[in-house]
Amino acid sequence: MSRLSLFNSPFLLGFEHFEQALERISKASADGYPPYNVAQINEQRLRITLAVAGFATTDLQVQVRDNQLVIAGKREDSTEAVYLHRGIATRQFQRNFVLADGIEVAGAALENGLLHVDLERPQSAPQVRSIAIETREPTSATGPTIDVVPGGSTPRKASR
């Protein structure tokens, strides 16, 4: 059984990675922890901010894997404290963000319980490239020809 694809048009060549990215996004967890913001700083810069109260820099990990930004946090619970009420979540998490081609992680900083991850798209000049067109001689798909001489004489092979 074949699967219907958004990108199966003959005019969309080489867009398989977009389809894979959409599959990754659809499989992403609907969990809302930790909450985050995505802000556009300017045309080339984005900032993702995650609320990670209670996490230290040693508890957090920021990685890029196959055009996917992975932000993970794991904190060991203190067993000596007895909570009467616990409203600050410090559970393990992993947030995934699919990055477009050319987007790079510029840096990450932890400030006042907020993890800021800065992304940038380096500005590139538009490229125009001309492709040379070759001239090729047609090749004969048939083998050697046989000349037939009128008047019943013996056929002979034509020389080339």
Task: Describe this structure as you would to a colleague.
The chain has 160 residues and is mainly β. It has a domain at 34-120: Immunoglobulin-like. The protein is built from one helix and nine strands; from the N terminus they run H-E-E-E-E-E-E-E-E-E. It has a four-stranded antiparallel beta sheet with strand order 1-2-7-6, with no helix packed on it. Strands 3-4-5 form a three-stranded antiparallel beta sheet. Strand 6 (104-111) and strand 7 form a beta hairpin. It is elongated and about 115 Å long. 6% of the residues are buried. The mean pLDDT is 81.
Summarize the structure.
By secondary structure, the chain is mainly beta. It is 8% helix and 31% strand.
**How much strand content do the residues show?**
25-35%
Task: Give the CA-based shape.
Answer: elongated
The biggest beta sheet, please? 4 strands, antiparallel
Strand order of the largest sheet: 1-2-7-6
Flag low-confidence runs: none
Structural class of the secondary structure composition?
mainly beta
Secondary structure tally, helices: 1
The string of secondary-structure elements, in order, is HEEEEEEEEE
Rg over CA atoms, rounded to whole Å, is 31 Å
Assign a percent range to the helix content: under 10%
What do the pLDDT scores average to? 81
CATH fold annotation of the domain at 34-120 = Immunoglobulin-like
CATH structural architecture of the domain at 34-120: Sandwich
Distance between the termini: 54 Å
Total E-strand runs: 9
Q: What's the CATH class label of the domain at 34-120?
A: Mainly Beta
